[in-house]
Design brief:
83 residues; mainly alpha
């Protein structure tokens, strides 16, 4: 095996890239303009998943589990499924 990131680290990084792409896709479905989507990232949000942070603040914590939860939350919002 070559030096560098272990295989499980690469898989986790791929999960995070997928999560960020999922957030982007959801925001494109919800908002008709990039400005509105960026606004969602910067506005305070009362969703429990965000813990009182704006989505951007939560993403900047570099917490993989939190990023995946935000992706799930955004996809649920895009599909209208809040169960």
């Amino acid at each position: 095996m070559s030096k560098g990131m272990p295989a499980n680290g690469l898989a986790r990084r791929a999960d995070l890239i997928g999560a960020v792409n999922s957030i982007h896709s959801a925001l494109c479905l919800i908002y008709s303009s990039d400005m509105d989507a960026r606004g969602w990232l910067r506005r305070p949000n009362s969703a429990r998943v965000l813990g009182g942070l704006t989505p951007l603040q939560a993403l900047m914590r570099h917490d993989a589990d939190l990023t995946l939860r935000i992706a799930n939350y955004a996809q649920s919002a895009a599909s209208g499924d809040f169960s």
